[in-house]
Specification:
This protein is mostly helical and 320 residues long. Helix content is 72%, strand content 0%.
Length: 320
């Protein structure tokens, strides 16, 4: 029997349940990332835009009985929100469009400020998760304990889930609660009870695919800056490609802009617009089920491919 056995030995200590093991990986990652002052500042700034849809919900609820507020909401629906159909219904029966107006305001909160905050937040923290472990060989310390690659991936992903939940799910639920508190009557809960569930589902649709993509980039290289560049390039180039492919045909070679261009055709080239399509469908504002399934399949493919790539990368490192 060898005196010095350099290989892995059987673990003889106390084993935790398989569902608890990823929490220890997540806790170490959250503790390390939480020390960054820039991250704390970003988390605080991500909550500031909640005031805009909250004011919109307050004005809508006041507009149910006050014509002055109703005119403000109608002008907003006709102008910035580009929903003249809701404006016409608002003029006739405000209560009938309450659910759709609330959903539209909360969706706008998800689509613009929180999605941009998500891209910036993941770009700051995701490259530090797996690429740093690969460069410093820290993954060997993780797997010296009874931890499987799948549990390691879930633990690292949970770090991103935690921070994204703080800027998407919690603000969304807080916004709904503010809407209920700012309403003149408690009966609004009976008309909007499903919106919190839609917020949770939309958060999952946003958080899980983006996390899988981010950890996939992080596992590709041992250099953090390369993973960050790939992450930001995906979002920027995807949005630019979508704008070029949809706006160029509208111009019609110098003629008047064409408005009959099928923008759904190029939706999948942009992660931003793909997520927007799915979130709009989740909030019930897009009833075209057939057109949303390609976007859903793309998000599922990103989850599966990203997870399998990270797993194969870890197994390859451990088998050397």
């Amino acid at each position: 029997m060898p005196v010095h056995d350099l290989g892995y030995r059987k673990w003889v200590g106390k084993r935790n349940h398989q569902l608890i093991r990823p929490l220890y990986v997540a806790r170490s990652g959250i503790t390390l990332i939480w020390r960054r002052r820039m991250l704390k500042l970003l988390l605080m700034l991500a909550w500031l835009p909640i005031a805009i849809p909250a004011i919109g919900i307050f004005c809508f609820e006041q507009g149910v009985t006050d014509m002055t507020y109703r005119r403000v909401i109608i002008r907003t629906l006709q102008g910035p929100m580009e929903r003249p159909d809701l404006a016409a219904q608002m003029l006739q029966d405000p209560v009938s469009v309450r659910h759709e107006v609330w959903s539209t305001l909360i969706l706008g909160f998800f689509r613009v400020p929180q999605l941009y905050s998500m891209v910036l937040l993941i770009g700051l923290i995701a490259p530090l998760l797996i690429s740093y472990d690969l460069r410093s060989k820290a993954y060997l310390q993780y797997f010296s304990r009874p931890l499987s690659p799948n549990e390691y991936i879930v633990g690292k992903s949970a770090v991103i889930w935690f921070f994204l939940g703080m800027i998407t799910t919690l603000p969304g639920l807080t916004l709904y609660l503010l809407g209920v508190l700012l309403s003149p009557e408690i009966s609004v809960v009976g008309m909007t009870w499903d919106i919190p569930l839609r917020i949770l589902i939309a958060s999952v649709a946003l958080i899980v695919p983006t996390t899988a993509l981010a950890i996939g980039y992080s596992a590709c290289t041992v250099e953090n800056r390369y993973a960050s560049f790939a992450w930001f390039a995906t979002w920027i180039m995807g949005s630019v490609a979508y704008q070029v492919l949809t706006n160029a045909p509208r111009m019609g070679r110098g003629r008047r802009p064409r408005m009959d261009v099928d923008t759904e055709r190029w939706l999948l080239v942009s992660p931003y617009h793909t997520l927007g399509k799915v979130e709009t469908w989740i909030f019930g504002l897009d009833t075209g089920d057939s057109s949303v399934w390609p976007a859903v399949l793309i998000l599922l493919a990103v989850i599966v491919i990203g997870t399998l790539f990270v797993r194969s990368r870890l197994i390859g490192k451990l088998s050397v």
